[in-house]
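Lab manual, section 2.4: Encoding a predicted structure.

Procedure: take the sequence of the chain (89 residues), apply the prediction step described in section 2.3, and record the output as structure tokens. A sample record is shown.
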Amino acid sequence: MIGKLIPKLKHGGVLGSVLGKPKATEGKDIRVEAIVAQPNPQNLSKFAEAARTHEFNIPIAKRFKLSQAADAQKLAEQSKADGKIVLIP
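Recorded output:
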């Protein structure tokens, strides 16, 4: 799945990964940074600001209404989404 996102990164871009460096990044002008998720309100605020100013974005493949959660799950299980699947209340 992460390999599908590599072409969407800008040259010199940074990829955060909990899985290590994907083979798809080899030979590309992309820096891979290891990340570990831990609850931290200060970091969340920084990420929100970075998203607001378009310093980074999270590719969204498809948005579903909460009532369509089963369809969203099916898409996720197929691994065909080129980005995140978002449920909207």
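Check your result against the sample. The longest helix spans residues 41-52.
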